[in-house]
Amino acid sequence: MRNSSEERENTSKHLTRLESFSDGVFAIAITLLVLEVIQMLHSDGRAGLGQLLLGHWKSILVFFMGFLTILICWINHQLVVSYAEKADSNFFWVNGFVLLVVTFTPFPTAILAEYLETEKHLAMAVFGFNYFMMSVAAYSLTAYIYNRLSSKENNELLLCYKLIYKYTIVYTFLVFLVCFFAVPVAIFLYALLFIVFAFPKDFASKLLNRRIKRRSRKHVPMHAD
Amino acid sequence: MRNSSEERENTSKHLTRLESFSDGVFAIAITLLVLEVIQMLHSDGRAGLGQLLLGHWKSILVFFMGFLTILICWINHQLVVSYAEKADSNFFWVNGFVLLVVTFTPFPTAILAEYLETEKHLAMAVFGFNYFMMSVAAYSLTAYIYNRLSSKENNELLLCYKLIYKYTIVYTFLVFLVCFFAVPVAIFLYALLFIVFAFPKDFASKLLNRRIKRRSRKHVPMHAD
Amino acid sequence: MRNSSEERENTSKHLTRLESFSDGVFAIAITLLVLEVIQMLHSDGRAGLGQLLLGHWKSILVFFMGFLTILICWINHQLVVSYAEKADSNFFWVNGFVLLVVTFTPFPTAILAEYLETEKHLAMAVFGFNYFMMSVAAYSLTAYIYNRLSSKENNELLLCYKLIYKYTIVYTFLVFLVCFFAVPVAIFLYALLFIVFAFPKDFASKLLNRRIKRRSRKHVPMHAD
Amino acid sequence: MRNSSEERENTSKHLTRLESFSDGVFAIAITLLVLEVIQMLHSDGRAGLGQLLLGHWKSILVFFMGFLTILICWINHQLVVSYAEKADSNFFWVNGFVLLVVTFTPFPTAILAEYLETEKHLAMAVFGFNYFMMSVAAYSLTAYIYNRLSSKENNELLLCYKLIYKYTIVYTFLVFLVCFFAVPVAIFLYALLFIVFAFPKDFASKLLNRRIKRRSRKHVPMHAD
Asked: Are the C-beta atoms of B164 and B207 separated by less than 8 Å?
């Protein structure tokens, strides 16, 4: 039988490889997006370059949206995973679900670039459904780390992330419905979401401070909820 | 001549780079799958988006199967390799064989997506042959680590992995034959396989416990077989 | 609340993952360039191989330029980031800006390869604008690390990098304008730039020595500017 | 000024990132090869699957050759780089040269797959020229590490690698010339080369033992040449 010190060392190795594998997947998904932009160079035959760039500015814009999406997803992933102190079999699957959504992201991004003009409602909805899945994945990851893999003294902030991602599931589902009716409104609502998740730590810290204040007013202990 | 402490340090460096290189290969292979799904956007000319998604749901399903396959393969790889305590020249080649099969996987996956409707038996058999090669690779890797690279006190569980992968070679060969006759049966049998390898540690632990019980009934020492 | 030792350990983990994610993005961007060269094999139908290689030597040359660009960018990135002693939320975004430019680089490279003969001024200007953005990104990264993430005793050399990148913003903007009028002159000026950034450490060290000499002549303390 | 302990720590960081960046490039180059095999699925219109696999078995064979080439290159890279104890500015460039050849490898591989039947001599020569460049790169890397970055007590074996790679430059140049006249002979000679570099450590150890014996017969000290 393995003794506990070796078991612990091995556990940290599992975590390291999970992080390194995930970083690879994020890095590739974010870089593959440009292939879609390059594609348009070949699809348009021998058009003039100026004309090509002007005619495809929406594709380039969608490239930036896709890039931002995956970057924000990576920032939140590395923040939340830094709370994990070990890795077990289930964690590989919860994390695998996150990676599945990330890997899939270039597809709805390509759909948005291709169909933004001809079928904007459906294209936006496909893209928005991806955001919904992403928040389900982020919530699952955070909840699993909070409940199973983190030590209880250090995860006050992690609880806040969990709460934020939970609200985000509802939010992204509602905006997904909005996509079918009003694309500009949906884009505006997604932009709001981006602002929150661009700086998740600062946002969660504010939330935590508010919760601490409220609690201290009511004289209840910290881990009661 | 190198002294033994430097030799050991260097050996651990070889292992680290083998893991980091392997993680890279797995991460890229799993992410490249989506390119095949994006491809269908360009191949169908100017079809409607709804029509395109409905007409290609099988491609999207095959993407998920390919993703699952490589993810499960990675989970098993990192589990088994965590038992290795050093890396030698042969290990690079045994591991290289695993990576060859992983790298190749997007090809049978693309074949399955393309030919599932027109030539399902042959397409499924090509995909199934890949699973057979994968279990041969997994068995070779595990056997090599068990025999040469792990310390004898810690690898009771590793022996169970080795046994499981050995049975899997026979299993995947039989299912490969089934592919030529009954595709749904083959898919069902592969799904069973997925369930085992999704949680290889738990499965191997159960096997180990059964072996320990049986042995203690017969009063034979642990490493006798 | 987290205690400071755990906070520090976690911070170093954020930095490690930022580096590993960035290395992945650089590695993929630099390797994707070859896809564009392979593309020409398929676009030209059944031309003879000799004819194909001779007819496309410019594409191959542009591949080398793209490779050099991203390699130099990586060398400078890893040099500057080695001064960071922690990672905060803003750093993820400053670094994300660098990665955005790196990820985008295969697109202007592909444009240059495709349009170098028919619309050389515009194609070169698009490529040159990318260099301009790259120096803005490099300056932002360096300035942020200098001001916020490095310890004040060790970053004399970092200050020199910051100065060099600042001058480079002006330089690349001017060369960008030159692209519209004289492509060979622009290429020559970019080649000069490459020579400086191929060995940034040596160049910055010389600059630092000159500054130290000048200061010691004027009898002013080291951190006065 | 930095003190020497911090300088050393930073130097090891440069080395770590060089390794992680290189691993990424190798991993991507080796995985991109499969894209070329998938390509044939789309280029042949609606051919039967059996017919497609049989008609393209040469493409699949070339995929294996490309895979073997890059895998062997990686094995030798990680072996040689493990002797480096620091990283300096020039090392980034010598290593960058190796990565350039590795990144470029999918292109001659694709050429070989495409033109093996119609223009075998030229296609094989392009592929062979890549091997010649690869051995120049391997020699440069090894010589630089031997002369500048390794400690003199530990690198007896490294000297043997250096010698082997030097001979290989001549060998690959000669086989490159053979490509123009007799493709099967060239393939046979490359296969011999593969056998040596598949297990570089074992081969170099034998060479080292022979050198030690010869020296001890002549009574000359070890580092005399």
From this structure: yes
DSSP state of B147: I
Domain assignment of residue A155, yes or no: yes
Neighbors of chain D by Cβ distance (3+ pairs < 8 Å):
A, B, C
Q: Among C35, C44, C89, C180, pick the best mutation site for testing chain A contact (most A Cβ within 10 A).
A: C89
Distance between D83 CA and the closest CA of chain A, angstroms? 24
Using a CB-CB distance cutoff of 8 angstroms, which residues of chain C are in contact with residue D27? 27
Chains meeting C at 3+ CB pairs closer than 8 A? A, B, D
Is residue C144 domain-resident?
yes
Q: What residues make up the domain containing C76?
A: 4-218
How many angstroms separate the CA atoms of A188 and A174, rounded? 13
Which residues in chain C are contacts of A42 at CB distance < 8 A? 39, 43
**Residue B134 in tokens:** 């994968």
How far apart CA C138 and CA C144 sit, in angstroms, is 10
End-to-end CA, chain C = 39
The H or E element that residue B7 is part of is helix B4-43
- What separation in angstroms does the CA of B177 have from each of B129, B170, B181, C16? 9, 11, 8, 47
Q: CA B192, CA B185: separation in Å to the nearest integer? A: 11
**Tokens, residue B221:** 């020492």
List chains touching B (3+ CB pairs under 8 A).
A, C, D
Q: Indicate whether C3 pLDDT > 60.
A: no
- What's the total number of domains in chain A? 1
Give residue C105's Cα distance to chain centre. Answer: 10
Q: What are the chain D neighbours of C105 within 8 Å (beta carbons)?
A: none
Asked if residue D225 is part of any domain, the answer here is: no
ipTM: 0.87
Cβ partners under 8 Å of residue A41, min gap 6: A52, C110, C111, C114
How would DSSP label each residue in D72-125? HHHHHHHHHHTT-----HHHHHHHHHHHHHHHHTHHHHHHHHHHTTTSHHHHHH
User: For an interface test with C, which of A22, A49, A156, A160 has the most C Cβ atoms less than 10 Å from its Cβ?
Assistant: A49
Say how far apart CA A188 and CA D134 lie, in whole Å: 52
| Under 8 Å between Cβ of B34 and B63 | yes
Per residue in A4-27, pLDDT (tens digit) is 455 555 667 888 889 999 999 999
Handedness of CA B122, B124, B127, B133 (dihedral sign): negative
**Which chain A positions have a beta carbon within 8 Å of D28's beta carbon?**
28
pLDDT band at D98 (very low <50, low <70, confident <90, very high): very high
Q: What is the amino acid identity at position D144? A: Y
Indicate yes or no: CB of A31 within 8 angstroms of CB of C36.
no
- Residues of A within 8 A of D27 (CB-CB) are 24
Looking at residue D45, its pLDDT comes to 59
The contact set of A with B (CB < 8 A) is 1-2, 6, 10, 13-14, 17-18, 20-21, 23-25, 27-29, 32, 35-36, 39, 43, 89, 92-93, 96, 99-100, 103-104, 106-107, 110-111, 114-115, 118-119, 122-123, 126
Taking an 8 Å cut-off on Cβ atoms, the answer to whether B23 and A28 are in contact is no
pLDDT at A54: 84
CB D176 within 8 A of CB D189: no
Report pLDDT digits (tens) over A159-211. 888 999 999 999 999 999 999 999 999 999 999 998 888 888 888 888 888 88
In what helix (H) or strand (E) does residue A10 lie, and over which residues does it extend? helix A4-43
- Residue of A28, A35, A39 to mutate for D, most D C-beta atoms under 10 A: A28
Contact flag A37-C99 (C-beta cutoff 8 Å): no
Structure confidence at residue D2 (pLDDT): 43
In a domain, A223, yes or no: no
